[in-house]
Amino acid sequence: MIRIYTSPSCSSCRKVKKWFEEQKMPYEERNIFTAALDEKELKDILAKSENGTEDIISSRSKIVKENNIDLESLTVKQLIEFIKENPSVLKRPIMVDERRIQVGYNEEEIRTFIPAAKRYAEWCCSSENCENYATCAHAKDKL
User: Fold this and answer.
1) Which CATH number is associated with domain 2-106?
2) If you ran DSSP here, which 8-state letter would residue 29 be given?
3) Which is nearest to 85 in space by CA: 128, 42, 54?
4) Where exactly are the structural domains of the chain?
5) Centroid of chain to Cα 142
6) Tens digits of residue pLDDT in 2-31
């Protein structure tokens, strides 16, 4: 199941949810302000981020700036506690599935969450490589 970490005032979060709904793909929404993130979730997010804190934490956050927080000097345990106490430091939206993470709304990159079989079917139908193109309901949606 895909989890999307959001906040109510985030326009990119609304775009991501709309995209998943248009693709008819189920997701679990987690509002970072109303549902406290637990240690397991945060470890999962950190483990999947390629560049560690740089990918998921806004260094321009008021809390980080005003308190001169050196994120690189924090232990994992300290970092998790910091995020739990200050969820607003997280960039949004954050999308996570079993294998990957994406931060922010990017029209090209978000397609990686579409199952491979569906991407292949779309490619066939849109490129007329499908032997059933004339009768394919998916292809008719593309016309």
Assistant:
1) 3.40.30.10
2) E
3) 42
4) 2-106, 115-143
5) 26
6) 999 999 999 999 999 999 999 889 999 999
How far is residue 91's CA from residue 94's CA, in Å, rounded to a whole number? Answer: 7
Q: Give the separation between CA 105 and CA 4, rounded to whole angstroms.
A: 11
Which residues does the annotation mark as catalytic?
Answer: 10
142 has pLDDT over 50: no
Euclidean distance between CA atoms 27 and 15, whole angstroms:
14
User: Of the given ranges (20-29, 60-69, 122-131, 133-142), which has the lowest mean pLDDT?
Assistant: 133-142
Q: How far is CA 23 from the centre of its chain?
A: 15
CA distances from 112 to 102, 107, 129 (A): 9, 10, 21
Asked whether the predicted pLDDT for residue 133 surpasses 60, the reply is no
Mean pLDDT of the chain: 86
Instruction: Give the integer Cα–Cα distance in Å for 4 and 7.
Output: 10
Helix 39-48 to helix 76-85 angle (10° resolution) is 120
Whether the pLDDT of residue 96 is over 80: the answer is yes
Phi and psi torsions of 18, nearest 5°:
-65, -40
The alpha carbon torsion through 32, 115, 100, 14 (nearest 10 deg) reads -30
